[in-house]
Amino acid sequence: MSFNEDWKEYKLENLIKMQKGFAFKSKDYQEDGVKIVKVSNFTDDSIDINSCTHISENKKNKYKKYILENNDILISTVGSWPSNPKSVVGKVIRVPIEAKGSLLNQNIVRLKSKPEKLSQLFLYYILRNKDFKNYIISGARGSANQASITLKSIRNYKFRLPSLREQEEIADIFFAIDKKIENNNKMNKTLEEMAQVIYKNWFVDFEPFQEEEFVESELGMIPEGWKVGYIDEFINITYGKNLAKKNMSGSGYKVFSASGLVGYHKEFLYKEPQVLMTCRGSGCGDIYESTPKSFVTNNCLVFEADEDTKINRFYLKQFLLNSNRDQFITGSAQPQITITNISKMKMLVPDQKTLDKFTKIIKKLNNKININKRENQTLKKLRDSLLPKLMSGEIRVPLDKDEKEVN
After folding, report:
1. First vs last Cα of the chain: how many Å apart?
2. CATH code of the domain made up of 8-160
3. Which fold has domain 227-349?
4. Are 361 and 128 a contacting pair, CB within 8 Å?
5. Which residue of 154, 216, 275, 384 pairs with 303 in a disulfide if CB–CB is 3.0 to 4.6 A?
6. Distance CA 274, CA 297 (A)
7. Are strands 92-94 and 73-76 parallel, antiparallel or unpaired?
8. Any keyword Disulfide bond (predicted)?
9. Max alpha carbon distance in the chain (Å)?
10. Are 253 and 294 spatial neighbours (Cβ–Cβ below 8 Å)?
11. Where are the domains of the chain?
């Protein structure tokens, strides 16, 4: 006897409406206006709305059939193979409220459920389940660097479906987990913004030091006892190491590249977290931090604090985030920042007492951020372990007899 024998099997095409995105022309792109959502704007489960390009508001009505709504489900039909999980083909995301009113670009398909049979939220978790991921990848085609999937393969996906009531109960469990993860991410963003505000207050506006003596420097007036010099006088700057895509995998030590986490590798380069700067591509100058025991590719500059100067990564990261990196970018077709160029950056170094006080404050914020990150990792593991069991009926949610429905 099957544990989900009361669930009926369906083909996806019988339960959804599907729509392809539009091939907007780059000549129409502009700095502001209506946002266009591309595959490159996908995060793990949402949309990075700040990275979207735009077209004129005057053209919105012309493309009204491509306007996105909150909770639309999007699938990327072009991307990478699983060795590069950040841009993997078949990635499934849900449109957040911030992206409502944006336009759907090519290489993405929108799915909407037929609500009389299938809950939109349950559909999302069906498509986030590893069974669908494996199905999509098995039918993907393409070259070593790019994979694609067909709309036909999406339509032909088969799965078993419980009653609407049970769909809602199951989806609510995962939604609650995802909501907690989202709230932790929002809290971390606020904490990171607080760190930047404190840095600016201390080291740009010098608010806590107004009663002290100030002296002239290459960066203007600074508190007496502080130093200014080229950044490479205080920090060791190196490139990461080249790593071929074929040597990445879906597990192991995290690999950081120009766009952040891009995959995994069997070895790590750095035992401790490092402050990184994207040095090639459209994100040139972006600042972020690697995790312990990670690999960093040569699309990043690695800023290692020099033990002799007592500069630590907490101050270093905030300094770089507050700096003008654009002036060190060269190249038009392929923007880049070289070690030679970035070494010309002038760095402000406070006295040790001030640095220690600042570090203590930022460490506390950082610890809260890391607690939230660890909680999110635990929640994701819980979600990912429950997902295949609840979506297959191996684990059933309790329903009152009078609440049970027939498909």
Report:
1. 19
2. 3.90.220.20
3. Adenine-n6-DNA-methyltransferase TaqI; Chain A, domain 2 (3.90.220)
4. no
5. 275
6. 12
7. antiparallel
8. no
9. 83
10. yes
11. 8-160, 227-349
Arithmetic mean of pLDDT, 356-360: 96
> How far is the C-alpha of 316 from the C-alpha of 305, rounded, in Å?
8
What CA–CA distance (Å, rounded) separates 282 from 286? Answer: 9
pLDDT of residue 1: 42
- What would the pLDDT profile of 18-63 be if each residue is shown by its tens digit? 999 999 999 999 999 999 999 999 998 999 999 899 999 999 999 9
- Gap between the Cα atoms of 165 and 105, Å rounded: 34
Q: Look up residue 385 and give its two tokens.
A: 């372990």
Please state, rounded to an integer, the average pLDDT across all residues of the chain.
93
How large is the average pLDDT for residues 376-400?
93
Residue 90 Cα distances to 10, 40, 137, 141, angstroms: 20, 13, 8, 12
Give the three-class secondary structure for 338: coil
The C-alpha angle 41, 174, 2, rounded to 5 degrees, equals: 120
Dihedrals phi, psi of 147, to nearest 5 degrees: -120, 155
Place of tokens 């490479």: 232
| pLDDT given for residue 251 in this prediction | 84
Question: Which residues fall within 8 angstroms of residue 189, CB to CB, at 6 or more apart?
Answer: none
Output the six-digit token pair for 332: 């038009």
Q: What residues have CB less than 8 Å from 320, skipping those under 6 apart?
A: 275, 277, 287, 303
| Ranges assigned E (strand) in 224-340 | 227-230, 235-239, 253-257, 260-265, 275-278, 287-289, 295-296, 300-305
CA 29/CA 38 separation, integer angstroms: 13
Residue 272 pLDDT: 92
Q: How far is CA 262 from CA 55, 278, 293, 327, in A?
A: 29, 13, 15, 27
Q: What is the pLDDT of residue 406?
A: 46
To the nearest whole percent, how much of the chain has pLDDT over 90? 84
What is the DSSP code (8-state) at residue 36? Answer: E
Structure-token pair, residue 224: 């007496």
Q: Are 35 and 9 a contacting pair, CB within 8 Å?
A: no
Amino acid at 104: L
Task: Find the range with the poorest average confidence among 294-298, 311-315, 332-336, 365-369.
Answer: 332-336
308 — pLDDT class (breaks 50, 70, 90): low
pTM of the predicted model as reported, rounded to 2 decimal places: 0.87
